Amino acid sequence: xxxxxxxxxxxxxxxxxxxxxxxxxxxxxxxxxxxxxxxxxxxxxxxxxxxxxxxxxxxxxxxxxxxxxxxxxxxxxxxxxxxxxxxxxxxxxxxxxxxxxxxxxxxxxxxxxxxxxxxxxxxxxxxxxxxxxxxxxxxxxxxxxxxxxxxxxxxxxxxxxxxxxxxxxxxxxxxxxxxxxxxxxxxxxxxxxxxxxxxxxxx
Length: 203
Known about the structure:
The chain is of the alpha+beta class.
């Protein structure tokens, strides 16, 4: 039993060190793709990683590298629900695919999503602050025409303000990350690691 304890503590310590050493941006959106006809994008309570003030209608946000291969969704693709930047009087209502790295803002076939609002929005209608949570609410989108391009569970990526990668004020700033669910929890990973370690020790 003592020998097992000596083995267990270093494994737990090592696992804790790896997890504690991670410095990834905060998880601000959780995306469930289990039903391609009703993909849900759910906000978390995490704060934005940056300060940005843009027009939610003309600028919106970018979910980078969402699709695993180029998909083509028109800029009028409907977004249903109440997902919104915290404090905004508008919700995200439309999206389209584009190429974020092209830095031209043109809607076209691509791996990236531009999500924005509709109607008479104004400058300052999409504000992100490091002192408040980035988003509130849930959005639902129909991606049933391209189920093979949807990301797998555990996929992560970045969420940016606006649609230009660089060179435009307020655009291309890292708000946080998204994650596709479900994903094995760190505790489960640690438990699996301990099981393997203990099994080797017993041999």
